[in-house]
Amino acid sequence: MNPPDAVSPPQDWTEPERGLWHAFHQAGWYDLRGQEDTTIRASVLQHLLLGPTPSVEGRVARLRLSGAEVTGQLDLRDVGAQLLVLLVDCSFAEPIMLSGATLRLVLDRSTLSGVVAQDAHIAGSLLARKVRITGQLRLRGTRVDGNIDLSGATLTYPDGDCLYADNVTVDGDLLANDGFTATGGISLAGARVGRDLNLDGATLHGALSFVEGQAQRLRLRLTASSTGNVDLTDARLGRFYLRPGDWPAGCTLDLDGFTVERIVPDGAWPARARVTWIEKHTAGYSPSGYEQLAATYRREGHEAEARYVLRNKELRRHRQLGPAGQLWGWVQHVTVGFGYAPGRALLWLAALLAFGTAYFSGHRLDPVIAGEAPTWQPLVYTLDLIVPLVDFGHERAYDPSGIDQAVALALVVLGWVLAAAVVAGASRTLKRA
After folding, report:
1. Residue 407 belongs to what H/E stretch?
2. How confident is the model at residue 21 (pLDDT cuts 50, 70, 90)?
3. Which backbone phi and psi does 8 adopt, to 5 degrees?
4. Per the confidence metrics, is the pTM higher than 0.70?
5. What's the CA dihedral at 88, 94, 141, 100 to 10 degrees?
6. What is the pLDDT of residues 142-163, one digit of tens each?
């Protein structure tokens, strides 16, 4: 193929290609929709884009093409920043190559077999609204000065990640909402999104990874038919918007190391419902979900709700420790709320003291040595039984037997259990401090 000159396209270019040449040099739209012949060779686009950038009356030439069927592979590596490339309602038989490129790009409503744009620089926004991609959209390491807009797009690559954008940097929003559908994984590990990562109304059939990602806001109101794991391990968010009542049954969450400033649900979402949601949708025990939820409550001044969440965190942790761990966790939960409800210990102490005093008021014990025992006081004797390591002089002075001995022994055991729970809770509290 002969290269185009400054006044006319090569003679071997087809009629649609010659029309594109004129439109390109006039910086105008070239619309092939509804035309009988819509075929444009990828090599023609490359000649136009990689050659000199002609202008008319000082206007920088732009490629603005719609309705074309592009044959061959469009390779735009190293294309210059001065071009705006708009390819709307076009179809591409082979993946578009953009690695290392610097350009402004629009692919709205086009059909593609893949886009490879590793380490590219989009000087502006990457607009790919309602595109259909049957292959991989590969944006690893790409820098986007504006937005990435995939709203309404359909990405299909069941053999791997249909969107592979690890370490992508987006100054604006990354939009995959309003009917966005992904069949295959979405990998955004290490991504940096300046404003919104928006998946409201998206349907996912595959894993979503935002490991170590950052976004000012994550909007994650997925459709009910979505499936796969949502991995937010070590992700950092400003706000997390979700609709917990309609969270997809087929989606699980990984929240290990996850941090968020504020969780914003649709409608009322009390602490009990939030804990139930975390336990239902997270795989295994991960403390981060509970801790971040409690932290958001504390920032909003809801200390009681924060303590409730943290008590349930400890309860779930102990459920992972086998029967003995579950039993000890239950004891701490009931007695001191794992240190988050210390008032419970006083209630238990008062209850044991009241029971023992009432019982021994009707069951006076005989002294071990007559005439040497202190005056019989059921309250002090009960206190001597249930408070470990403190000697009030009554326990050693009186000798219970039969049922009285069993009651005394039970009070001693319960006193030690209560003391151990208090020590465990206090230790946890001091460790947090």
Report:
1. helix 403-432
2. very high
3. -155, 155
4. yes
5. -90
6. 999 999 999 999 999 999 999 9
DSSP for 101-133? Answer: -EEEEE-TT-EES-EE-TT-EEEEEEE-TT-EE
- Distance separating alpha carbons of residues 416 and 428, to the nearest angstrom: 18
59-60 and 55-56 beta bridge pairing: antiparallel
Question: Tokens 């022994």 identify what position?
Answer: 409
Distance separating alpha carbons of residues 246 and 262, to the nearest angstrom:
19
Domain residue limits, the chain: 36-318, 337-432
The pLDDT tens digits for 348-392 are 888 888 999 999 999 989 888 877 888 889 999 888 888 887 888
- pLDDT band at 53; cut points 50, 70, 90: low
Helix (H, G, I), strand (E, B) or coil at 139: coil
Shortest CA distance to 153 belongs to which of 167, 138, 137? 137
Q: Which helix (H) or strand (E) holds 351?
A: helix 343-361
The single-letter code of the amino acid at 273 is: A
Rounded-to-integer distance, Cα 408 and Cα 385, Å: 7
